[in-house]
Automatic annotation (TrEMBL):
Signal peptide: none annotated. This is Aldehyde dehydrogenase family protein. Keywords: Oxidoreductase, Plasmid. SUPFAM superfamilies: ALDH-like. The keyword Phosphoprotein does not apply. Belongs to the aldehyde dehydrogenase family. PROSITE patterns: ALDEHYDE_DEHYDR_CYS (PS00070), ALDEHYDE_DEHYDR_GLU (PS00687). Residues 38-497 form the Aldehyde dehydrogenase domain. Gene3D superfamilies: Aldehyde Dehydrogenase, Chain A, domain 1 (3.40.605.10), Aldehyde Dehydrogenase, Chain A, domain 2 (3.40.309.10).
Length: 502
């Protein structure tokens, strides 16, 4: 997609348009204030300044959003819409996202802080790809006939159908707001569900704009509702008896709370949770390629990525050389406001997250790790929530910085010589989301991929995702898989039909 406008000009226009008015919730096809009348400020992480006021949705607003989604789900205009027409709606929405790519990328940059060009290339183009991919599923997702063997010897026709699960509550995080919304909305509506999207309170703006574009694409009112708010709104959505399924991306701690909250009506739950992904480097690895990808794997999006390769296990024979090369990549990052085309590394999402990351670096120091690079706030960046890309060398397997998810640009580096001990340490985690393996030996690559307990394993690459390939975690990294047919199955029920033909 071509560069259309200067990002600063787009940002000025967007903030001017939002100034002096509260950005309303999107319920039943209308932008409306919260019933409480309350609003909250969404903050630019690069400056610490307010971007806009956003209506603060609460339990009462969740009630009316669920009611709107239920009406839309039962309305023949949606429930009886043929598969081809549902596909066309998804294609139209993808086209509209593409038409508004610059606007959406700058809006995300303002709200999240990541460089706008990266946002456009990764989040916006990725969202377009996701909607177009799932636009192909409504005409291909169905049941099958089965060769059953009834005891009576009767002639039986048995077939299955796939039906939408109903009303889905979608809760997405602040690190990839647009992408995560697309990952959940696209398969949900492709399967025929109606949804309530609850974006993170830190990043509500692109979710609201996406909801407006869905209406422009022709989605009936109530099919896609967007309710920004804080924890009470999310809890109300999870516990609501009118919600049939909850999909959540976020921390493992909140994921466990969602499981507890969903028990009232035993709603279906899918969870994409935390990670502490190992990067495993063999002695024969291409160190230039490994260093570049490992740096990108931990420093992209300022390390605020569930799959961030935050644990480095480098063979002792190459560890020093590899760390030098990763440190060079860290030093080469251009830290600054994400609206600047030259910026490659933006701020953390908030002062709260900055405090968390800084606290972990201090813990690492106290535990004996060596700060090889970074470890502080860049003095020249003023009020923004910036934290330098950081490498903690000489880390030990029992250190908190090795075992706990930091969710920031902090790489903890360990060395190894014994392959069996390497596998044990790599798997010695409550998480199992992803892993990277670096080697030029094909047998070693496949054996390590088999041995590592993770939902995604990348060999000589990292952080490759595609809407056709299932994504999710082992252990406490989640339940279920997003993308591909697996995602369609998350938002559907299987019905078995028996017909006596005797």
């Amino acid at each position: 997609m071509a560069l259309v406008e200067n990002a600063y000009d787009v940002a000025q226009r967007l903030t001017r348009d939002m100034a002096g008015k509260v950005q309303g919730l999107l319920i039943d096809g209308q932008r409306v204030p919260a019933l409480s009348g309350e609003s909250f400020a969404t903050i630019n992480p690069a400056t610490g300044e307010e971007i806009a006021q956003v209506a603060r949705g609460g339990a009462a607003d969740i009630d009316r959003a669920v009611a709107a989604a239920r009406r839309a789900f039962e309305n023949p205009a949606w429930r009886r819409m043929n598969a081809n027409d549902r596909s066309l709606l998804l294609y139209r929405l993808a086209d509209l996202i593409e038409q508004h790519a610059d606007e959406l990328a700058v809006l995300e940059c303002l709200d999240n802080g990541k460089p706008w060009l990266f946002t456009k290339a990764v989040e916006i183009e990725g969202s377009i790809k996701t909607f177009r991919y799932f636009a192909g599923w409504p005409t291909k997702f169905g049941g099958e006939t089965l060769p059953v063997s009834p005891r009576s010897g009767a002639r039986i026709l048995n077939y299955t159908t796939r039906e939408p699960v109903g009303v889905a509550g979608l809760i997405v995080p602040w690190n990839y707001p647009m992408s995560m919304a697309a990952w959940k909305i696209a398969p949900a509506v492709a399967a025929g569900c109606c949804v309530i999207l609850k974006p993170a309170e830190q990043t509500p703006l692109t979710a609201l704009r996406l909801g407006e574009l869905a209406l422009e694409a022709g989605f009936p009112a109530g099919v896609i509702n967007v309710v920004p708010g804080f924890g009470e709104a999310g809890a109300a959505l999870v516990e609501h008896p009118g919600v049939d399924k909850v999909a959540f991306t976020g921390s493992t701690a909140v994921g466990k709370a969602i499981v507890r909250g969903s028990a009232g009506n035993l709603k279906k739950v899918s969870l994409e949770l935390g990670g502490k992904s190992p990067q495993i480097v063999m002695a024969d690895a291409d160190l230039d390629a490994a260093a570049a990808s490992i740096a990108a794997g931990i420093f992209f999006n300022q390390g605020q990525t569930c799959t961030a390769g935050s644990r480095l296990y480098a063979h002792a024979s190459v560890a020093d050389e590899l760390l030098e090369r990763i440190a060079a990549h860290a030093a080469a990052q251009k830290i600054g406001n994400g609206l600047d085309d030259a910026t490659t590394f933006g701020p953390l999402i908030s002062q709260e997250q900055w405090d968390v990351v800084n606290g972990y670096v201090n813990i690492g120091r106290e535990e004996g790790a060596q700060v090889l690079a970074g470890g502080r706030r860049p003095a020249e960046q003023g009020k923004g929530f910036f934290f330098e890309p950081t490498i903690l060398a000489s880390a030990g397997p029992d250190m908190r910085v090795v075992r706990e998810e930091i969710f920031g640009p902090v790489l903890s580096a360990l060395t190894w010589t014994d392959p069996e001990e390497l596998v044990r340490q790599a798997n010695d985690s409550e998480f199992g989301l992803s892993a990277g393996i670096w080697t030029n030996d094909i047998k070693t690559a496949h054996r390590m991929a088999e041995a590592v307990k993770a939902g995604t394993v990348w060999i000589n690459c990292f952080n490759m995702v595609d809407p056709a390939s299932p994504f999710g975690g082992f252990k406490q990294s989640g339940w279920g898989r997003e993308h591909g047919r697996a995602a369609m199955e998350l938002y559907s029920e299987t019905k078995s039909v028996w017909v006596n033909l005797s």
